Amino acid sequence: MSQTFFRYFHDLFKQPSQSDTQVFQLVELKYDRVYILYAFLIHFSTYFLLILPPFFSFIPDMLPYLFGITIARLVLLSQNYAKTNKLGFIIFFSGFVSDALLYAAVCSALVRAPSLENFYLSNAYLMAMSVPVLLYSLRLDRLSCIYGGVYFVFFHLVYIYFIPANIVESTSLLSRVFPIFIFTGSALIGSVFILNKRKNISDLYKLSEERRYMQQELELAKKVQDALFPKDLKIPGIKYKYYRKNPNLIGGDFFDFVQLREGNVGVFLTDVAGHGISSAMVASIMKVLVSTIPYRFKLSPGKLLEYLDERLAKDLNKYHASAVYLFFDFVEKRLNIGNAGHPYLIHAPKADLFSEIETNGAILGFNIRSPIVQEKLLSFASGDRFVIYTDGLIESVTSRGEELGAEGFLQILNKNRALTELHELEDAILQELKSEFGIEAFADDTMFLLLEVD
């Protein structure tokens, strides 16, 4: 308890850092205006004294004090939207004058009607003046409540001096000075409120700055990741279009082309578990692994995926991923497929229906199976189309509350299979997802890749 009190007392007089000072200067005027508004509204409550004993017996004598309080608060209210560098001083001066007039009114009534009953009533009214002290806690000035408490203690000491002698003789010292303890306690409590508010503002600003910095880092990471994707890359023998969407700017969905000798092409696509920064970094690492893998592995989906499985299990044992690798052999006109726990490849012979090609394989990163996949060979011809996608697409929830599923995606593809250009098919897929299934946004990383053999 004593340590907590000492910490607050230390914070009360500790010089704030330059950054904190700049932050407080940005919002201090806003809090001062809130204080001014509440101070103006609350001062009207002093007029209730006119219906309380003994004040209702001296209404003509009390009104000048109350009108003076109203004038002081009106002057303060007029400064609420004025451009002034001395608003803090005006707030303090207005409060000092208003509270002094209120104290003078209470003291005047007691002097006019010096009874023991009126003394205790006056004490009760004066202790209610802890509200103006606490009201200063609406501000950000660390010493606002302390200033208020100090001048209220001063007022009360003057008030004690003017208490009639017969009341002094009939009361204890504690009863006469008790309001001083109330004002002191209110000043300390209000100061704690102010310090906590300043700390919260400082913390929120720091969090905001960290968030802004992280956002900048994410945007930079997005640019880096975007640069890793093929852009306007001419792939001999294949036309392609792709779509990807990440809820967190960057994600773990990634694909790349592997250009090989004799005009052959490999297509690698992966979906790292999770989404965000960590999965995006793992996806980038997998691109590097695929780019630097021994050439002979690039000719075999099974060997390439098994190599990635071992590296993930050994070097990144907290992460796993699904992946698919397609090896287009344009000499033999054959496609070799390796699928490691990924959604099935979709194939449509020229002008024919789209259908899934079932494959068998385990997810990467657990090193639980060797060989990791069973390769599958498929003949292809000019005009054939292939579609690879990540599960974020088919796991999207439709307007009917159901997942789209592979069947829903196949329905969209077959409905638009007559479209001759891949960009038209891409636009149609996105339009159908929105209009037919009510999917306007994806909750997970989502990507699909459209391929067409020249």
TrEMBL record:
Pfam families: SpoIIE
InterPro entries: Bact_Sigma-Reg (IPR052016), PPM-type-like_dom_sf (IPR036457), PPM-type_phosphatase-like_dom (IPR001932)
Superkingdom per UniProt: Bacteria
Transmembrane intervals: 35-56, 62-82, 89-113, 119-138, 145-165, 177-196
UniProt keyword annotations, A-Z: Hydrolase, Membrane, Transmembrane, Transmembrane helix
Annotated ranges, domain PPM-type phosphatase: 235-453
Coiled-coil annotated spans: none
Listed name of the protein: Serine phosphatase
Gene label: rsbU
